[in-house]
Design a protein that fits this description.
By secondary structure, this protein is of the alpha/beta class. It contains 9 helices and 8 strands.
């Protein structure tokens, strides 16, 4: 483990629209560009269009525009497969409810993206082991994971530091449900809270951890500074706080863990 102290900045994605609306508008633009290509090129030279290939072309154009507009990287495969999946459902005359079920599954998993523009990230086992080393060792601590996903970090810490209190808060329904099921079968004493972290008072916690996205960091850090007690710790995995110098920077493989003393 290496520790460096330096000033870090991050490029923040910005748009006047939310990311899902931005993605939808890009799909609309890609559709009309594909339609124009079909009319100006294929039909004029009497080439019969293959609808599946056109759907793939539509997805490719959407990916290129999304990359140019700096949409979060996880949106690129979604942008590509959207129209090809529609074509497959239509061509094979699959029941429409299958598409609806798939939509609901994605919605339950990525609900946090719609509300907070924060995707689902899963932290690594290497991070969990480093976090154990960073927790105060001479006393019980109260720890909260802001955006706990399916609960891996909290479950690991609670098994290792049984004298301490560990809470996770998650806004996406399905990841939260998975973490609750995992907690039940592991017989862990940790707690997973369903809801927005903004409604959680941080005053009772000694250590807060977040693995969110660049767009959320300013608001999270402002809440941390306002509510957490002096001497407490805040950690952010992968994403620094814009224009705020961290007190520590830990290199964990190819990833970074930023830390601040409050």
């Amino acid at each position: 483990m290496k520790i460096k102290k330096k000033r870090n900045k991050t490029i923040q994605y910005s748009s006047r629209f939310s990311t899902p609306v931005h993605a939808f508008l890009i799909q609309a633009i890609a559709f009309f560009l594909t339609l124009g290509f079909t009319y100006l090129v294929l039909l004029r030279v009497s080439i019969q269009a293959n609808l599946f290939l056109l759907a793939c072309l539509q997805g490719t154009i959407a990916v290129v525009i999304s990359y140019w507009r700096k949409l979060p990287i996880w949106w690129l495969p979604i942008q590509f497969v959207f129209f090809p999946i529609l074509f497959i459902v239509h061509y094979f005359e699959l029941p429409s409810f299958l598409f609806f079920i798939g939509f609901l599954m994605l919605l339950f998993i990525y609900w946090g993206v719609v509300i907070t523009r924060v995707p689902l990230y899963l932290s690594s086992h290497a991070l969990w082991k480093e976090m154990i080393k960073l927790l105060p060792a001479n006393r019980p601590v109260r720890f909260i994971d802001i955006g706990s996903g399916i609960g891996g970090l909290i479950l690991y810490l609670s098994k290792t530091r049984t004298e301490s209190t560990f809470h996770g808060v998650e806004i996406s329904p399905l990841p939260w449900l998975i973490s609750r099921v995992r907690q039940f079968f592991s017989n862990s004493k940790c707690t997973f809270i369903y809801g927005n972290y903004e409604r959680i008072a941080l005053t009772e916690y000694d250590v807060a951890f977040a693995y969110l996205s660049p767009v959320a960091m300013d608001a999270v850090f402002a809440k941390v500074k306002k509510e957490m007690r002096p001497g407490s710790l805040f950690f952010s995995y992968e994403f620094p706080v814009f224009d705020v110098k961290p007190d520590m920077l830990l290199l964990i493989g190819n990833s970074k863990l930023y830390g601040w003393y409050i």
